[in-house]
Amino acid sequence: MSKTAQEWQQILGLNTPPDDEFLASLNALEGQDVVEGGGLEARGLTAAPMTPAELVGALVVQSAGEAFKAVRQEQSLTVRGAAQAWGVSPGRVSQMESPEANLYMSTVGSAALRMGYRAKLVLEPLEGGQAIVAPLGE
Fold it and tell me: Model pTM?
């Protein structure tokens, strides 16, 4: 039985309900043991197979700011508590969490380390080939 957008929002912990296209995809994949590459094989754009549990467990965000906010929330910290724990001002935490934040890569790397994470820049070729990974802030 198909789930509603609100049910998927709750299950996946999304800020907003999925749009109609994403909702249809989620309902089509419901009950499958493994999610394959998504039909992009012809262009060489495939993803490694993931179980539904792995797919749900992967947090996908649209910006570095949203990633920093997700870390703070995962650590159950207020903006003020995060500032104290990470050695920055509350204003800086708010700036870093802004979806429009335009952060230097060195800022992303050092902030991630203070939060207990490792940041990496990953360049994945669109037409096949090996990805290039560069650590940030190490």
Answer: 0.52
